[in-house]
Design a protein that fits this description.
mainly alpha, about 325 residues, MetI-like fold, globular, single chain
Length: about 325
């Protein structure tokens, strides 16, 4: 890696630290803002006032907020996310058991959205006045207005219950079962992201088509897939990648809904269960993990755009 690129990457990483510090502070404040008394929940409804005070002291809830922040950061640096109030299981164990399901779902959703959005974007950009482009545009308008949970229910009713080809819920045991169980959830979350991605890519491609270098390439006889691969995609991908990064929060929120819809034992389903049962440490830990995921996705997208965009100056 050149010195310019290394400086660029270090600069981007330095910009992450203030955001990370703000996220950690929000996670600590989350326990203060949530309704109910965490110490009372842990101690139980029959606990005396003295027992509640003792639990609050053990949790450090009676200490100043910045002291709680420092203690939380210290525990995180040691790999300690805390313990579930509900089950007494270390949160690292809970995350380790469930994160694989969420990663499968997010990867499948991104794969589906990309495979569906790219052909639609190419059609609308290269043949904007064709009948297929008009049908595609109207279909995208309909899809973007459909709630993910409704799409999931419709897909389950038609493709699972109606035919019996695919499982309605669960994660499966072996690799084949897991792939089959992820088809409908991945379609659901992929369709939620695909319309915006397709329209963004189509708009970028339309702009690139009028660029001087594309006109020159066409005059030299370059056409078809070589024109798309060499001159269009490289210049049109950065805006689409940026949009995907912006949609990272929506993608994770969609994963929470889809996991509940299809009964997937992922982090999203655990978040809803923990929130409903006031399992504060789990809610805190999962909020931190989702926040770190969004920060990481945006950082990777920023670096990918810089690598793809030929106008990037590595300074």
């Amino acid at each position: 890696m050149s010195a310019g690129r290394l400086h660029f990457v270090v600069g981007r990483l330095a910009q992450v630290f203030p955001v990370l510090a703000a996220l950690l502070l929000i996670v600590v404040l989350l326990q203060q803002m949530m309704p109910g008394d965490p110490a009372r929940v842990i101690a139980g409804p029959r606990a005396t006032a003295e027992q509640v005070v003792q639990v609050r002291h053990e949790l450090g809830l009676d200490r100043p907020i910045f002291e709680q922040f420092g203690r939380h950061v210290s525990n995180l640096l040691q790999g300690d996310l805390g313990t579930s109030n509900r089950t007494g299981i270390p949160i690292t164990t809970i995350v380790g058991d469930r994160i694989g399901v969420t990663v499968w779902l997010l990867f499948g959703g991104l794969l589906v959205s990309t495979l569906l959005a790219m052909p639609a974007a190419l059609l609308m950009a290269l043949r904007p006045r064709s009948r297929g482009a008009r049908i595609c545009s109207r279909a995208l308008t309909i899809i973007i207005n459909c709630p993910p949970f409704w799409v999931g229910l419709m897909l389950a009713s038609v493709l699972a219950l109606g035919t019996g080809w695919l499982p309605v819920g669960g994660f499966g045991v072996d690799f084949g079962d897991r792939v089959r169980s992820m088809i409908l959830p991945s379609l659901t979350i992929g369709l939620a992201v695909m319309p915006l991605l397709a329209r963004s890519a189509a708009a970028s491609l339309s702009q690139v088509l009028t660029a001087d270098h594309v006109t020159t390439a066409r005059s030299l006889g370059v056409s078809g897939w070589p024109l798309v691969r060499r001159h269009l995609l490289r210049n049109a991908l950065p805006p689409a990648i940026t949009l995907l990064a912006i949609q990272a929060a929506a993608l994770l929120f969609g994963a929470v809904i889809v996991e509940q819809t299809f009964g997937l034992p992922g982090l999203g389903a655990e978040m809803i269960t923990a929130a409903s049962q006031r399992d504060f440490p789990v809610v805190q830990a999962l909020t931190l993990i989702f926040g770190l995921a969004i920060i990481g996705i945006n950082l990777l997208a920023d670096l990918a755009v810089a690598l793809l965009d030929p106008r990037t100056t590595w300074r």
